[in-house]
Structure formats: C-alpha cells, structure tokens
C-alpha cells in the first residue's frame, strides 16, 4: 500500500515501532542507505510533534554524552 507512512497516509503502530529502530540504528552507525523508502517514512514521522517529544534525548532525565 503506497502512502506517506508505513501503511497508507496515517501514522500506525508500524510507524511507532519503526522510529525507535531507526533512532538506534543511527546511534550505532548502522548503514541505512539501502533503505530509502524506510528512511523517508522515518523522516516524515520524526517531523511530527508526538515523535519529537518522545525522542530519548529530549527527555528531562536524558544523559547526554
């Protein structure tokens, strides 16, 4: 199914599960260039306020190294 997100044009549980995986893949420098559609979906999600507020490094008790 084509759309802006994993399954269509609305955020679903699949997107909610995808974003943390991409976050950690970046954190550990995993190569992600082979997944342009996945990265485009993650990028769209990461621009949404609920995702921004949920990023680990935006939490009050985040330890930034």
From TrEMBL:
What PANTHER family would the database entry show? Answer: GLUTATHIONE S-TRANSFERASE YFCF (PTHR42673:SF21), MALEYLACETOACETATE ISOMERASE (PTHR42673)
Which part of the chain is the GST C-terminal domain? 1-64
Species of origin reads: Reyranella soli
What is the official name of this protein in its record? GST C-terminal domain-containing protein
- PROSITE patterns, alphabetized: GST_CTER (PS50405)
The lineage is:
Bacteria, Pseudomonadati, Pseudomonadota, Alphaproteobacteria, Hyphomicrobiales
Identify a single GO molecular function assigned to this protein: maleylacetoacetate isomerase activity
A single Gene Ontology biological process assigned to it is: L-phenylalanine catabolic process
